[in-house]
């Protein structure tokens, strides 16, 4: 089972084993990770599940679709090259050890 690590702004980190097929957002909500609001429930229309993917792991992910790309322009914290909506990252075995940082605000 893939392990996903969520890093908070204070540097604290929590790692969870997550079944393949869930999104990074769904796993965060299920585990009670702070800072992932997910107001739209994973429909890529609110940008409240914004995360920063570890720069060394971005290439493991498919490129964002047009709707995700557009929503990333509306995040509360600045968009970066490694910004993604966690609802759009489906967990696969290849994403084992994925690390994401939760922004200061959503």
UniProtKB/TrEMBL annotation:
Source organism superkingdom: Bacteria
Gene3D superfamilies: 3.10.20.30
Protein name per its UniProtKB record: 2Fe-2S iron-sulfur cluster-binding protein
Protein's organism: Amycolatopsis tucumanensis
Protein family according to the UniProt entry: Belongs to the adrenodoxin/putidaredoxin family.
PROSITE patterns (UniProt xref): 2FE2S_FER_2
Keyword Metal-binding on entry: yes
Entry keywords, A to Z: 2Fe-2S, Iron, Iron-sulfur, Metal-binding
The protein's required cofactors: [2Fe-2S] cluster
Ranges for domain 2Fe-2S ferredoxin-type: 2-106
InterPro entries named in the record: 2Fe-2S_ferredoxin-like_sf, 2Fe-2S_ferredoxin-type, Adrenodoxin-like, Beta-grasp_dom_sf
A Pfam family annotated for this UniProt entry: Fer2
């Amino acid at each position: 089972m893939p392990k996903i690590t969520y890093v908070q702004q204070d540097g604290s980190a929590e790692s969870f084993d997550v079944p393949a097929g869930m999104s990074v957002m769904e796993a965060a909500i299920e585990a009670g990770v702070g800072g992932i609001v997910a107001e739209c429930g994973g429909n890529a229309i609110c940008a409240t599940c914004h995360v920063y993917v570890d720069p060394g792991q971005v290439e493991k992910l498919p490129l964002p679709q047009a709707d995700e790309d557009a929503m990333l322009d509306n995040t509360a914290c600045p968009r970066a090259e490694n910004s993604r909506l966690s609802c759009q990252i489906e967990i696969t075995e290849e994403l084992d050890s994925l690390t994401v940082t939760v922004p200061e605000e959503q």
